[in-house]
Design a protein that fits this description.
By secondary structure, this protein is of the alpha/beta class. The protein has 8 helices and 7 strands. A 7-stranded mixed β-sheet has the order 3-2-1-4-5-7-6, with helices on both faces.
C-alpha cells in the first residue's frame, strides 16, 4: 500500500480511476456481469452467512443496517442477507449494475467512497465479500497501473467508515477474503489489525484452495472488526 495513499492528490487519482468502463473491460468481470453466481464458492458464502448470523445472535446489534460495498451481482449478498435472522436492513452498492443481478436486494449504483459518504451514518455494519485484489503500487501522472478494476476501494471504504463513526457508536466491519492475497488490497491485513480504532472480534478460516489468477495456495477467511472510539 503506498505510503502517501491518504494524500488528497493520490486519493483523487485513485478514485477517479474507478470507472464502469474499466471494470467491464476486464474479462473476468465481463463474465461476472452476465453470470448468476458468486465470486466465492456457494458453500463458502453459506458459511459466511451462518457465521455472521451466529455472531450477531450472540452480540445483538440495535437497528442493524448492513452497508454492502463492491457487491457485484448481489448473489453472495442475497445468500448472506437471507441467513441473518435478526431484524435488519440491507443496502448493496457497486459501480456497475450487473445485467444479471439478484433483484430482491436493494441496490444503489455508486463506488465505495460515495456509498460510505451517503450511508455510513444510517448503517452500523460495513460488509465486503471478496474485495478486488490490488497489489501493484506503481503510479504515474496519468493513471494507476496494475489491476484494472477497483484498486484500494476496500482501503478507502474502511478508512472513511471509521472516520465517520462517532464516539460511542457500536459499528462493525466484516471482510471476507484474504485481506491482500487474492482478495483485497495488499497491506489491508496490517492496516486493519494495527488500526487503533479496530478490534478483531472474530476470525475463521472458511476455505483453502488455489488462486484462479496464478495458481498459488489461498485461504478464504471471515474477519469481523469492531470499531472502537472512546
Amino acid at each position: 500500500m503506498p505510503i502517501d495513499i491518504d494524500s488528497p492528490k493520490i486519493r483523487e487519482m485513485i478514485v477517479f480511476s474507478w470507472t464502469e468502463g474499466k471494470i467491464l473491460s476486464d474479462g473476468y468481470n465481463r463474465e461476472q456481469n452476465t453470470v448468476f453466481e458468486p465470486t466465492q464458492p456457494t458453500h463458502v458464502i453459506d458459511t459466511v452467512g451462518d457465521e455472521i448470523n451466529k455472531f450477531f445472535e450472540a452480540n445483538p446489534l440495535k437497528n442493524m443496517c448492513v452497508l454492502d460495498i463492491m457487491s457485484g451481482n448481489c448473489y453472495a449478498s442475497a445468500i448472506v442477507e437471507c441467513m441473518i435472522k435478526q431484524e435488519h436492513k440491507w443496502l448493496s452498492t457497486d459501480i456497475i449494475d450487473s445485467k444479471v443481478r439478484w433483484e430482491h436486494i436493494p441496490f444503489h449504483k455508486c463506488n465505495a467512497v460515495t456509498a460510505v459518504t451517503y450511508y455510513a451514518n444510517v448503517s452500523n455494519v460495513l460488509l465486503m465479500i471478496s474485495p478486488s485484489p490490488y497489489d501493484d503500487y506503481r503510479f504515474n501522472k496519468a493513471a494507476i497501473r496494475g489491476n484494472k478494476d477497483y484498486g484500494y476501494a476496500d482501503y478507502y471504504g474502511c478508512h472513511d467508515y471509521i472516520e465517520k463513526t462517532k464516539m460511542g457508536e457500536e459499528k462493525y466491519i466484516i471482510i471476507v477474503g484474504e485481506l491482500g492475497a487474492s482478495d483485497g488490497t495488499a497491506g489491508m491485513y496490517k492496516y486493519m489489525t494495527e488500526n487503533k480504532h479496530l478490534v478483531l472480534v472474530f476470525r475463521k478460516l472458511l476455505h483453502t484452495g488455489t488462486s484462479s489468477w496464478d495458481g498459488r495456495p489461498i485461504e478464504k477467511e471471515i474477519f469481523i472488526f469492531k470499531i472502537k472510539k472512546d
